[in-house]
Amino acid sequence: MLGIFSLYEKAWSGSPVQFTWQKSLGNFLAVTGGDRAVKIFDRHGQKRNEISLPGNCIAMDWDKDGDTLAIITDKSSTIFLWDAITNKTSQVDSGMRDAMSFLLWSRVGALLAVGTAKGNLLIYNRQTSRKISVLGKHTKRITCGCWSIENLLALGGEDKMITISNQEGDTIRQTSVSSDPSDMQFSVMKTDERVSTRESTVSAVVGKRTLFLFNLNDPDNPIDLKFQQPYGSIVTYKWYGDGYIMIGFSQGCFVVISTHIREIGQEVFQAHNHKDNLSSIAISQSLNKAASCGDNCIKIHDLTDMREMYAIINLDDENKGVDQMAWTDDGQLLAVSTRKGSLHVFLTKLPILGDACSTRIAYLTSLLEVTIANHVERELPVTVSVEVEPSFVAIGVYHLAVGMNNRAWFYALGENNVKKLKDVEYLGTVASMRLNSDYAAALFEGKIQLHMIESEGLGAQEERETRLFPADDDKYQILCHALTSDFLIYGTDTGVIRYFYIEDWQYVNEYRHPVSVRKVFPDPNGTRMAFIDDKSDGFVYCPVNDRVYEIPDFSPTIKGILWENWPMDKGVFAAFDDDKVYTYVFHKDAIQGSKIILAGGTEVPYSHKPLLLYNGELTCQTPSGKTNNIYLSTHSFLGNLKDFGPDVLRQMLTQTLMLKRFSEAWEVCSLLNDQSCWNELAKACLHHMEVDFAIRVFRASGNAGMVMSLEQIKGIEDHNLLAGHLAMFTSDFNLAQDLYLASSCPIAALEMRKDLQHWDRALQLAKRLAPDQIPFISKEYAVQLEFMGDYVNALAHYEKGITGNNKEHDEVCLAGVAQMSIRMGDIRRGVNQAIKHPSRVLKRDCGAILENMKQFSEAAQLYEKGQYYDKAASVYIRCKNWAKVGELLPHVSSPKIHLQYAKAKEADGRYTEAVIAYEHAKQWDSVIRLYLDHLNNPEKAVNIVRETQSLEGAKMVARFFLQLGDYGSAIQFLVMSKCNNEAFTLAQQHNKMEIYADIISDTTNEDYQSIALYFEAEKKHFQAGKFFLLCGQYGRALRHFMKSPSTEDNLAMEMAIETVGRAKDEALTNQLIDYLMGEGDGMPQDAKYLFRLYMALKQYRDAARTAIIIAREEQCSGNYRNAHDVLFSMYSELKTQKIKISSEMATNLMILHSYILVKIHVKRGDHMKGARMLIRVANNISKFPSHIVPILTSTVIECHRAGLKNSAFSFAAMLMRPEYRCKIDPKYKKKIETVVRRRDTTETEEPTTACPYCAFQLPECELLCPSCKNNLPYCIATGRHMVRDDWTVCPHFGIFFLMLQTENMCPMCSERINIVDLMKITDCTEYLKLEDEDH
């Protein structure tokens, strides 16, 4: 709260003062103390008059209009009257002999009531000067009273009586009270249904403790309200609102109660506002505020919410505390007296006066102070002290104007100071004023005076210094006006808006509105203007094109409109009323045309008046003389976008698009990164014809098609053509058509309709724009109509489409004519047209239509002409025209037609033709049936059954052979036809079970068991065992296999081993092992069966030991290849199962393989390799006991041939031993003896190669590295050890090779090898690891 002034008079010092505000206007304050005088001050604290009195002032009061102040004193019977208008004091003799004690003006008339110390009453009429004296109204001093709005007078006195009198002084009611009454007031009690607003209740404080309520309508039931003792005594009380009373208590509390009969006695609100004492309370209905004072502070509450503390004023210098308090009627000023005799006046409500020019604002900050500020340009505020309390303020580029009534004061705004220029008097009271850089325009009494602010005094411009609007001959009243840098704009009561161009000093534009124009609000440039008419409707007027746009959803309570001053938001404006600001956007360049949209609303705090809108920030003037900035809810995106979640960002995106803030929308979309948001932004850009920005958005969202399309049109200057393209892109095709037709390229509308296949619209456009395209559009329209089933119009358009000079197009139209003619029932025309037409497809389509219409002969004819033989034959069959079907049959591929034809021929008894037709139809059962039943050709039937595996055919053949007594063949075909039970029964009856058993396969266990039981009964053990094995009865199968007599191939033993392998039963396994070992009969079986058993049981270690034994036996018998194969198969299996291979097996296999390689090398004539392998074998000659002499003989011969003379001598000497000498082949004996006799120790040195493990150089046929002690892998082709840089493997078994140049058979596994398949391996490390693991 702003302190306006304080009064300190020496005469008042030390004692409380009385004061009273001028009623209604509040321009004067009357104050009196103990100095026998009443001083009159104006609202700025200036003393206007001083009324000397013969004694101390007892009471004073202003009349209802505030024109007259009445004063009474304790020493005189005279009433002093001070006239506020003339500033004169007059006296009226009361005629009373006793001292006056009470004075009060009527609230509705010119009546003054005066009470005396002896209880007498005087009613004085100021207008008529009539005096009514009423003696003995009370028996003692009249101390208080009040007038009602019906001019009833209530009085209270020390006689403890309350009287109610009329304006003539007649008592109409009276009542007694328990103690002295005080603070009497008239009011209306709160009721459920208020019948009238008559003030029927008198309230008074009785004895400082009780609030007495006396209802004139119910005088017998007065109400006494008593309060809690801790509250103290009642200081004062005030009625307010709908029957509420606020009561102040001496101990610092104030309480609000309701006078509703059901709520009386209940406290609505209570607050302890002051610590020690409360001295007064005041209520301002215009401010809707309540104040209490006590101690040395004032606390102000809002009546709408008493809990809200509006303001606190501390008077720290007032150590004695505050006393009384009162508001002016308008609530602007609050006066507070203190106990030490001072008085303070505070500004509680400032007239909200303000104006804006561009971003500069001027507003009233005190009664005599105007502040100029520019928050946008960050200029320091400048305060201007003015001479009068202004009723209007206007700000211009360089000037400030303030004024009241018909006078205005002008100030020049410098950089650092403000200088008063002049004051101007106008011909009437100024309602509003507007300034620009040079001129001022004042509106008064329906006229405007436009004049220069600072006259240059140049003669040439004298006529341009001032002008009065309207001219004398214009009979209208100007209701509103505005002044831009170039134009004076005003609106009249006749609805005329006129633009006066100051530069040319003449009118340049005029718009006539149907009703009067109340307010005008041009944008900063004056190119657009919002106005409000007499119906409270809002519009935007564009003088450039003389167009008017209604503002949608325009509230009738709107007080004013502000245009956005931010240069990037030229189309945004805000309309405001007392509670809310509505943001609107004028979309000028939109594809649908210019329009205004409501973007949203923002709540405005109480009593805020908007002055300036800049970039969504609304600067408002407050009642306290300050400004407050509010951000519009429609501009919430201006904050830090990263602080918000997706839902809020989507709302912000909507706001940015409505406001055309595309850069901010881009930022929002970037944060959301949602395709739908990008699409929304792109659509808005197209809507507002922002082509370049739309390209940028579509490029960001990856829509290359739209980017290319927009790139093609962005250079178009024709507004309608460009808008048409954009409307088409947004799928508003009707709008696009209208825009195209209004553009310089109307043909674009036709092209669009054609592209959209809107052929009916396209046809209408073509008649006007391009008649030569009518045939082509007619054809397309006909196709569409045909699809929709409108054949009549389709036929008409097909006929219109025939050009006569475009063959391809005409063929399509003629085809359409043919089809539509048939559909319309003109079959002859349609068929003839289709036959003439070169298209096969047309014939097929027309045939299908005719077929659906049951016109079979014509349909078949067209199918045949179109070479659709299957369809033709099918339709001929429906006509029973078998002759035609027979003609077409060679061309028919459909089995169904052949089947129908075959059935017809069979019915006619023409079986040969029927069989051929059945064969074409792939109906083999019917073919077999005819061959057996009618053509007596069983061989053909049997062949077909074997080829087709037909079940039904097999049954028919089986029945045929059964009739012939050929049971074996019958059983075979019964099995083929899955009739196993019949086949089994037949085999059992005719002792053909062997045949059945040979044929049967893939059947059930029951069938296998039946066969097994049959053979068991017949003592055919092998067959019984075989079928018991198939049905899973392994024990019985093994028993029969072991009983089966031995054969050359001993198949029974093989089957027994397979049985045990499948059974995985230890008992059966032991049973078979005992049998193989000869435990029962003492005749052991061949060891190979035991080996196979172990392999079947996957007991690989036992199988390996057995394999070694078998190989040894074979070796001893001289069967080296067999021994090699047994060991190799075991070696491969162990390797597959990843079981470690014993060194004995590996060594035996290596020696046997070396022996086998000898033959290969010798055969190829490679005697050195053969000799090296024979030396390896001869060194292990004990492994070959059956062929010691031949092997040694071969070793001597090959070593001799290879030049290994010393080795040849060594092995020849061995042969000369007595046990071998006699066994040498005579053919070689002499030669060997010669070798021994003529000893030659020369020896070709064996080449060395690197160890694959450690790279140590060792002889190439050495398989044990003396350095790393590793057994080296050897080549299965040469027998030498492997080397790292020459390595490959057998593709079948993964065994190592060095080279294999001539052989196409693997020496180890005997599988065929293609040399091309052998790939050289560069890194053999993993093979070396595997080899290492094996050993």
UniProtKB/TrEMBL annotation:
Signal peptide (from-to): none
Q: Which residues form a coiled coil?
A: none
What are the alphabetically sorted keywords of the record?
Cell projection, Cilium, Cilium biogenesis/degradation, Cytoplasm, Cytoskeleton, Flagellum, Repeat, TPR repeat, WD repeat
Broad class of the protein's primary localization? other
Stored SMART domains: WD40
Domain WDR19 first beta-propeller span(s) in chain numbering: 17-341
Q: Where is the WDR19 WD40 repeat domain?
A: 361-635
Read off the InterPro entries from this record. Beta-prop_WDR19_1st, TPR-like_helical_dom_sf, TPR_IF140/IFT172/WDR19, WD40/YVTN_repeat-like_dom_sf, WD40_rpt, WDR19/dyf-2, WDR19_WD40_rpt
Could you mention a single GO BP entry for this protein? protein localization to membrane
Top-level lineage group: Eukaryota
Please name the Gene3D superfamilies in this protein's record: 1.25.40.470, YVTN repeat-like/Quinoprotein amine dehydrogenase (2.130.10.10)
Where would I find the IF140/IFT172/WDR19 TPR domain in this sequence?
A: 662-1061
One cellular component term (GO) for this entry is: intraciliary transport particle A
Keyword presence, Plastid? no
UniProt-annotated location(s): Cell projection, Cilium, Flagellum; Cell projection, Cilium, Photoreceptor outer segment; Cytoplasm, Cytoskeleton, Cilium basal body
**Subunit relationships:** Component of the IFT complex A (IFT-A) complex. IFT-A complex is divided into a core subcomplex composed of IFT122:IFT140:WDR19 which is associated with TULP3 and a peripheral subcomplex composed of IFT43:WDR35:TTC21B. Interacts (via C-terminal region) with IFT122 (via C-terminal region). Interacts with BBS1. Interacts with TTC25.
Q: Which PANTHER family match?
A: OSMOTIC AVOIDANCE ABNORMAL PROTEIN 1/WD REPEAT MEMBRANE PROTEIN, WD REPEAT DOMAIN 19
Protein role:
As component of the IFT complex A (IFT-A), a complex required for retrograde ciliary transport and entry into cilia of G protein-coupled receptors (GPCRs), it is involved in cilia function and/or assembly. Essential for functional IFT-A assembly and ciliary entry of GPCRs. Associates with the BBSome complex to mediate ciliary transport.
State the name under which the record lists this protein: WD repeat-containing protein 19
Organism of origin is Corvus moneduloides (New Caledonian crow)
